[in-house]
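From: lab user (bench 3)
To: helpdesk
Subject: output format question, protein + phosphoenolpyruvate

Hello, I'm new to running complex predictions and I'm not sure whether the block I got back is the full result or only part of it. Here's what I submitted:
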Amino acid sequence: MSRKLIAGNWKMNGSRAEWRALAAAVVQQAQGVAADFVVCPPAAGLADVATVVQGAQVALGTQDVCAHGNGAHTGEVSTTMLKEFGCTYAIVGHSERRTDLAETDGLVAAKARAALAEGIVPIICIGETEDQKTKGLTTKVLDGQLRGSLKDVRPARAVDIVIAYEPVWAIGTGKVPTAADITEACAHIRSLLIELLPDTGKSVRILYGGSVKPENAAEILTLANVDGALIGGASLKAESFVGIARAVVAKAA
Ligand code: PEP
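Helpdesk reply: Thanks, we reran it on our side. This is the complete output you should expect:
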């Protein structure tokens, strides 16, 4: 089994004291667990968390990046600034931003390119809504989102980008697709990656995201083409976040 990437999206939760405590607990509990970990606090928490994870097995990520370089972009944070904080991963195109802020595939691709140019690994999120799934449109939606969100994104190495398959209806709801549905979606994403990125697509990591917990992690993360997980709610407690990795490692042993 290849080493899994376990990424935590803390969303807009917590306080300075809570971010530091959570990061410290993740660092401590992740020790010796054979997985790669990344935590993505809110932008306001990056400095605090950076000092805690520095030199540890836990990488620092951001929940978003600006597609532009430094300049007149009020309220935004550039990739050069994020790099200075020690960010090595950036979530881009999360469905909450696609919905709340009307982010398009084109903007997501521009953000992915900006991250890549700064040596930050973009975690590019795609996924269908419940309505799209019900109408049998999942494959078509994933196809369009992946092609659009990878426009002119050219990673030199497979490890330079990550794709997160996150069915919108599974995020924060406790609902999870069947193993067969995840397998089919991730196989489709893999074949598209091979088509779009002939040199690297075979090995780009694909994460599953949507109501992952320690109890369901072993089944989901050992499916074909699932190379890790993007975790929201369960990443807010170190035991459940690291517990997800432990469950997968234990099943493989
Ligand atoms: C997410 O927001 O990316 C996510 C997967 O959330 P949750 O784990 O809470 O479903």
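A quick orientation on your result: The CA atoms of residues 222 and 248 lie 7 Å apart. Let us know if anything else is unclear.
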